[in-house]
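Name: Synaptic vesicle 2-related protein
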Amino acid sequence: MEDDLFQLRQLPVVKFRRTGESSRSDEDVISGEHEVQIEGVRTELEPVELEDGAAVPKEFANPTDDTFMVEDAVEAIGFGKFQWKLSVITGLAWASNAMEMMILSILAPQLHCEWRLPSWQVALLTSVVFVGMMSSSTLWGNISDQYGRKTGLKISVLWTLYYGILSGFAPVYSWILVLRGLVGFGIGGVPQSVTLYAEFLPMKARAKCILLIEVFWAIGTVFEVLLAVLVMPTLGWRWLLILSALPLLLFAVLCFWLPESARYDVLSGNQEKAIATLKRIATENGAPMPLGKLIISRQEDRGKMRDLFTPHFRWTTLLLWFIWFSNAFSYYGLVLLTTEFFQAGDVCSISSRRKEVKAKCSLTCEYLTEEDYTDLLWTTLSEFPGVLVTLWIIDRIGRKKTMALSFFVFSFCSLLLFLCVGRNVLTVLLFIARAFISGGFQAAYVYTPEVYPTATRALGLGTCSGMARVGALITPFIAQVMLESSVYLTLVVYSGCCLLAAVASCFLPIETKGRGLQESSHREWGQEMVGRGSHSPGVTRSNSGSQE
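Structure predicted for Synaptic vesicle 2-related protein:
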């Protein structure tokens, strides 16, 4: 007993004060009416100041507070072994998603030649994947909000795996069109892995970790190109489709290790399961669990579309929809334009090339050459510096400014393509443009889960992902069909869209830099850790909920 009292004397005591509803009044805290006096234990508490965004030290594991919330526990336990494992598993899902998307730029020209498809059917083969993704994004968000993040993620991955392998056996064009559409339907649920991942991260590490997960997207795209180089000349496109789906099988097996989100369990009333999950994380990280009773935020309906259009989130939702639309529209458009530009040699040669093949354009067949794969690999590698740049600036200038900067640089590089530059300069401009638009995409993935409360987080991310698929669905008709009519009009469309998206990023009403995830839409933004002392005149109300 004396040893326990001695240890208690050595522990600084930190009071977690949360904005929003509380079971105690400020007067109760000042008067000490509810404090427990222990003989021999120092009761005068010294205030402790933490730097902005700093994690709660492990020794401040909430030893004297009688209640705590999931976010308190996640902050106190901190980042450790559990999060590293989760990073690898989530990254595997993201890499598998990237491979399924990257295969579109390889499969289309191959089927164009082998099955002698008209150009519009080749474009439709790309668009149908995004139709499936667009139609399913909201559905997967609702499933995740109603039945759990892990459940929605497992179903979507198994769905994608099944139809991805099955599409390798498609006998005719109509079959592969339907099967790739069903693959896209499953891919629409993979972004829920970001929701699950973000809810296990302490505030200080969240942005950097989500961005590092995006490195796996770049790894997946690079791996797909290398796989195509090895498989296509010998085994053909059918084996490429089958082998590209195998990483999803590995993720499906590892998915059984994933725990359900503790935030979701608490909101669902399953506190025992949430506590078990938090204890598991604390054990793996070698950190203490907060003492006291786990409490929940005010219960509310989950997963309702109208929740995204409450007065507090209406403008945020609309602006985010346009930002996600512009991201996908520009990113996938650039991927398609890159092939066109490299085959022509430069921008100014495209019009003349189009005139030469106009009489036979629908049946012009060009297999991808070794040089095409090399150029595709170089432009894909640009996503690595894009993620690194975003990682460096996102916690310095904030999420909103990071997205705005990414859109502006992409727009500027698009305008420079108006000049008749050589092949080397063209490659550099495309490299920079893709690096920044991919970085802007990752910033959106950081911002969106942070801005919505737990009740609508998965639905908010799902609807944004759906709008992104609308942009990806439209972009083949701009980057391929409109390009045949006017190169410069095509560049103006992409540049103008990104300029508008940059403005939309600046007008987002909430900046989430340095703020915790919301448990409930009824609570204001933010959480403060404030030292509590017997002589404190009162507690200052946080202003972190103000919109910028």
